[in-house]
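Aggregate trends can hide what the representation actually does to any particular protein. The sequence in question and its structure tokens are set out directly beneath this paragraph.
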Amino acid sequence: MDSAKAAKEVAKLDTELRKLGRTRNELLKTERQRGQLSKQEEQSLLRVQRQTDLLRQKKNQLNQAIRTENKVILAAEGSMEKLRAETAQLRLEANKLNLKTVEGKQRFKEVERQIKQNTRTIRDYDRNLSGSSTLVGEYARGAVQAFKSIGAGILIAVGAIRTMSNALRGAVADFAKMETGQFNVQTLLEDFNTTLEKDTIQLIRDFGTEVEDTNKALFDAVSAGIPAAKSIDFLREASILAIGGVTDLRTAVDGLTSILNAYHLQQEEAAQVAAAFFSAQKFGKTTVQELAEAIGQTAPIAQQLNVTYQETLSLYAEITKQGIKTQEATTSIRNVMASLLKPTAETAKVFDELGIVYGSTRVQQVGFLNVFRQIIDAVERGDAELANICLLYTSPSPRDRTRSRMPSSA
């Protein structure tokens, strides 16, 4: 059984385990209220425990199979690293072509065609891994190390595609553009940084990023609070994410700084944040660019609710793999989080009736993903009121508002 099928089986088992868990909790609640269970109820409790043990054993076997196949998946990443690096170089070449000449126009069409083909290949590869939230979790445990390996592979691939001397000639040919960008960054600093331009050129050499994109990304990073002394190290992590995520450097910086600032994290956390973005792209039907554009709308409220950025990005992966667009997922995530953080009296009453916890402290204790799945379970059982409160739908038609397209708890 391949990992995608195994992951689906694990998801089904998770659904059965949650049902058994609810039955067990109801029986234990009855025991607390009455002081004892009837003979029939005691037999039911024993049967539930036996079924739970069997399902957990089967789930552990499937997870082991998934872990084994993941080792093969990560080993195959090398060819993708090279393809990501090649695509970054093609983007750089496209930005420098003279479109006023016939040759330039012709070459631009060829480069554009190749970029599209490479991008499709990379995204197909990434999305083939999007089996389930279990797969996300398995990958996330080694995400940072895997991400570092990807970064090392990208550096090697860039070096193979383009020598350092060629990178220097191609990337800094427009000297005026480099000088203007560096001047803009220096205006943000209290003291003139004498090594910043040299370090920026080295970054461009290492990753083959485009001059203007690099300077704008550097400006945005420093503007967002990244210390100038640490800005190049930060941009190195962002460059790996940009190339791995098939996007530009400025977009990668925007996504990383949105999370760092929302969660009050230091620059040193950038590698972990980048790994979480990359993992979400791999296991969802979304992209680093879409996530970077969306995360600024959800990270601040997630932080208030004590939901980690890893949980938030994992939720994006789980929702989008159901075919829901990233922006639609953002709307639903924000609505659910807002309802849990500060519910109205009416919403609190609905939550209480359904046994759904709310408030940052209690959500953190139970786990946001668990609470979210409780809400989905209730909506799937036909709770139209809860669906309307949390806006768990994507159709703009009022008559379709109860037809949630959010991911099944299965």
